[in-house]
Write a structure and sequence with these properties.
- Residues 19-350 form the Aminotransferase class I/classII large domain.
- InterPro entries: Aminotransferase_I/II_large, PyrdxlP-dep_Trfase, PyrdxlP-dep_Trfase_major, PyrdxlP-dep_Trfase_small.
- Pfam families: Aminotran_1_2 (PF00155).
- Helix 7 (162-175) links the parallel strand 5 (144-150) and strand 6.
- The longest helix has 25 residues, at 265-289.
- The protein is built from twelve helices and 13 strands.
- It is of the alpha/beta class and 381 residues long.
- The chain is globular.
- The protein has two domains: 7-26 and 267-374, Aspartate Aminotransferase, domain 1 (Alpha-Beta Complex); 33-264, Type I PLP-dependent aspartate aminotransferase-like (Major domain) (Aspartate Aminotransferase, domain 2, 3-Layer(aba) Sandwich).
- Helices cover 39% and strands 15% of the residues.
- Strands 2-8-7-6-5-3-4 form a seven-stranded mixed beta sheet, sandwiched between helices. The chain has a four-stranded antiparallel beta sheet with strand order 9-10-13-12, with no helix packed on it.
- Bound molecules: pyridoxal-5'-phosphate (PLP).
Length: 381
């Protein structure tokens, strides 16, 4: 099979009542952005093909956010299509792509599905998912065409520092001119409360490509609107052609709604960031209360984090029981295996459900932790 099976597909197709698996913020309902203007413009919208680069007004708005010219932006069907098109346009057979693991599953799986060589740099819970830049340098070869880093990272919500990114970009500039550095910034603006937003890497270096979308921070994953940014004109031209050859254009309806989402972005962010900080606080308390069973790395952004089932209380067999009991209780959990980690870890999304429901679900999960964990040895009690 060309595309490997990954159970993350259940997130789309099997929705359980208590969803701790989702990585997005609260879904946006169209009425949140609906007004007379919206209604009038929508009524008159021509359902023609879009342009290969994507709606100009939408690119203008994204360009303003990123402080780059709209010519550097291509609208894509979600950030995932920006990743796909970049791989396709930059690599030939036998070329190598380096990325981190754990990671967003399609990023890991597409590389080999498209016939390229996947080289992974493993990030671990124990090292707080930080990257060892020197280890990364050891992996680069003359055949490496693309390095994909994700900041904030899915599934962990951890980030890479600017100095690390610049160090990598500089090294590529000195030694590997045919290799680009992609920063997947899909969760960049999903900050908590009044925390400062992490600055974008767009426009910072010629060899950096950034991608992002409206899926996670704006709560509109069903729009399927993302973008790719690069200041390399030839690359942008290639991406436009590849996009036309595969999907022709984005849906003009999606692009129209996306423009409206961006017009109301401040309000959309405000409510979602308040929601996220409440979710984060509840999660933090929950982790503390259950610290004999679990541990976590506190995320820096994104309504998601990684939880580890402690070794002393969870062995292989009761880890399986933990997941099966959760499923029976209608609690949806994103298993570490989806992201290239082990089952000992899972992703917990704290921004998707209403706060009361999140609280209720975490309480249910506490009971499942207690009932499925192995008992402590007598001499430990
Ligand atoms: C890190 C990362 N990149 C990209 C995507 C793709 O998002 P979309 O295509 O919905 O924009 C996701 C989705 O989960 C993600 O987690």
């Amino acid at each position: 099979m060309k595309f490997p099976n990954n159970d993350i597909i259940t997130l789309l197709d099997e929705r359980l009542e208590f969803n701790l698996a989702e990585s997005t913020n609260k879904d946006l309902i169209l009425k949140e952005i609906w007004d007379d203007n919206f209604s009038n413009e929508l009524k008159n919208l021509k359902l023609e093909y879009g342009t290969s680069q994507g709606n100009e007004n939408l690119r203008q708005k994204i360009g303003e956010k990123l402080h780059v010219d709209k010519s550097q932006i291509v609208i894509t069907n979600g950030a995932v299509f920006g990743i796909f098109l970049s791989m396709l346009c930059l690599c030939e057979k036998n070329d190598e792509i380096i990325t981190v693991q754990p990671n967003f599953p399609p990023t890991l799986d597409l590389i080999e599905s498209l016939g390229f060589k996947k080289v992974v740099i493993k990030l671990s819970f124990e090292e707080e998912y930080q990257i060892d830049v020197n280890k990364l340098f050891d992996l680069i070869t003359e055949k490496t065409r693309l390095i994909i880093l994700v900041s904030p990272l899915n599934p962990t919500g951890t980030i890479h520092s600017k100095s690390e990114i610049l160090k990598i970009s500089n090294r590529l500039n000195e030694q590997y001119l045919n290799c680009k550095l992609m920063i997947d910034e899909t969760y960049r603006e999903a900050t908590y409360g009044n925390n400062t937003i992490i600055p974008t890497y767009a426009g910072l270096r010629d060899n950096i490509i950034t991608i992002s979308s409206l899926s996670k921070c704006h709560g509109t994953p069903g729009l399927r609107i993302g973008w790719l940014q690069s200041n390399n004109e030839n690359f942008i031209e290639q991406v436009k052609i590849a996009k036309m050859d595969t999907v022709i254009s984005n849906s003009v309806l999606d692009e129209f709604v996306a423009s409206k989402v961006l017009e109301k972005e401040d309000e959309i962010f405000k409510s979602r960031r308040i929601h996220s900080i409440k979710g984060l606080e509840i999660t933090k308390k929950w982790v503390e209360q259950n610290n004999q069973f679990i541990n976590w790395i506190e995320p820096k952004a994104g309504a998601l984090c990684c939880i580890k089932l402690n070794e002393e209380r969870f062995t292989k067999s009761n880890i399986d029981e933990f997941y099966s009991t959760s499923k029976k209780a209608e609690i949806q959990i994103a298993v570490g295996e989806w992201f290239g980690a082990s089952k000992r870890y899972f992703r917990l999304g704290f921004g998707y459900m209403e706060i009361e429901k999140l609280d209720l679900t975490l309480n249910k999960l506490s009971k499942i932790l207690i009932s499925t964990a192995s008992k402590k040895q007598k001499n430990e009690i």
